[in-house]
Design goal:
This is Cytochrome P450 107B1. The chain is built from 17 helices and eleven strands. With about 425 residues, it is of the alpha+beta class. It has a single domain, classed as Cytochrome P450 (Cytochrome p450, Orthogonal Bundle). A hairpin with a 6-residue loop joins β2 and β3.
Length: about 425
């Protein structure tokens, strides 16, 4: 594999072999090349951080900037010009802009608003399960894991029900874009459509505000310094995109691993109070965020004896950090009763000022999805356990998720 003198290519991280088991590669890198230079197809010097301590420090290191405008040439080579209009949000900014945007969004996206969604999430879960076939194999991802968070985030933002499938299609197109010309055109078209859609929706909600998050964001003010039009559109996109893709893949990963570990599933079913700890462990063990979004070095930075030069891009391998034996005992084992499995132990929702704003909602949705699914279908099983899982092959290993999840909800009938 890769040594400290070699660079890992992006292609090596997208092979079927790597997608099936990235953890063996990451284990090697943590020892041999904990800060590994990469040769991605976009041509920008990139370094991959794989150890837990380095990753945690890097996630809050002010020398590693999230402000895309500071690395605009690199950004355009990777994503093109069309993405810029949708990235004027807190995910792609540093203080003081990030601080202002985060405070404004926090003032509307309150814990009370999230908790108030619990009965509605329960209702959506039960409704989706009502519609699932029970005795024959079917794919749980499009039948349950994906509709749940897209309905929830659309309800939260105030997106009309008839637009849900379109939102899912467009954001999926953006997420799965490759480097070919055809893929780039599809990405640009989808991003343009999303920008136009949210611009129109924001205009409609200005005229007729509703009891939804987008209306609250429009109305919010912070010392007369509210969100600009560009920031509103971009924030709406960010909440839509991040609010359903990562949760959908997390639910799929969680169901797969619990079905593949009967003793762990039995422990959760026998003690429902374990579901909260189980979700944290599942996020650590194989969460849906494999790598954090790009950062770039504003000055020379050193991690684990490796110099990251000024201007280089940095990727932080969350999946690797969460399996680091220097932090977690028996990291490659799924253990829902793992001692000290506190919410802030793993890095699945990030760390520092960019810690995932939607983490409470993602936790709630996943907990309710697993609880109701296994309560209602205690005999649920993988349709073909011998076949093994088929994982997504994506151009950037940002998401860790299944391409399909064939199950039988009630094999005994």
């Amino acid at each position: 594999m890769t040594t400290t003198q070699e660079a890992v290519t992006a292609a090596e991280r997208c092979t079927p072999e790597f997608r099936r088991d990235p953890h063996a590669v990451y284990a090697h890198l943590r020892t041999a090349a904990p800060v590994c230079p990469m040769r991605p197809p976009h041509g920008n010097d990139t370094y991959l951080i794989t150890r837990y301590d380095d990753a945690r420090a890097a996630l809050s290191d002010p020398r590693l900037s999230k402000d895309m405008y500071g690395a605009m040439d690199a950004y355009r080579r990777i994503f093109g010009d069309s993405s810029v209009a949708l990235d004027d949000n807190m995910l792609n900014s540093d203080a003081p802009k990030h601080t202002r945007l985060r405070r404004l969004v926090n003032s509307a996206f309150t814990p009370r608003r999230v908790e108030a969604l619990r009965p509605r999430v329960e209702e959506i879960v039960q409704s989706l399960l009502d519609a699932c076939p029970t005795r024959e194999p079917f794919d749980l991802l499009p039948g349950f894991a994906f509709p749940l968070p897209i309905i929830v985030i659309c309800d939260l933002l105030g997106v009309p029900p008839e637009d849900r499938s379109r939102m899912q299609h467009l954001s999926t197109t953006v997420a799965q874009t490759g480097f070919g010309e055809e893929a780039k055109r599809a990405q640009q078209q989808a991003e343009g459509d999303l920008h136009a859609y949210f611009t129109e929706l924001i205009g409609a909600k200005r005229d007729q505000p509703g009891d939804d998050l987008l209306s609250a964001l429009i109305a919010v003010r912070d010392n007369d310094d509210g969100l600009t039009e560009s920031e509103l559109v971009s924030t709406a996109f960010l909440l839509m995109f991040a609010g359903h893709k990562t949760t959908a893949y997390l639910i799929g990963n969680a169901v797969h691993h619990l079905l593949s570990h009967p003793a762990q599933l039995r422990a959760v079913r026998e003690n429902p109070e374990l579901v909260r700890a189980a979700v944290e462990e599942l996020v650590r063990y194989d969460g849906s965020v494999e790598s954090a979004t790009f950062r770039y070095a504003t000055e020379d930075v050193e991690y684990s004896g490796t110099l990251i030069p000024k201007g280089a891009l940095v990727q932080i391998a969350i999946s690797s950090a969460n399996r680091d034996p220097q932090k977690f005992d028996r990291p490659d084992e799924l253990d829902v009763m793992r001692p000290g499995n506190a919410q802030d132990a793993h890095l699945g929702f990030g760390h520092g000022s960019h810690y995932c704003l939607g983490a409470p909602l993602a936790r709630m949705e996943t907990q309710l999805a697993l609880t109701r699914l296994f309560d209602r279908f205690p005999g649920m099983a993988l349709a073909d356990p011998a076949a093994g899982p088929r994982w997504l092959e994506v151009p950037f290993p940002a998401f860790r998720g299944l391409a399909e999840l064939p199950v039988v909800l009630d094999p005994a009938g």
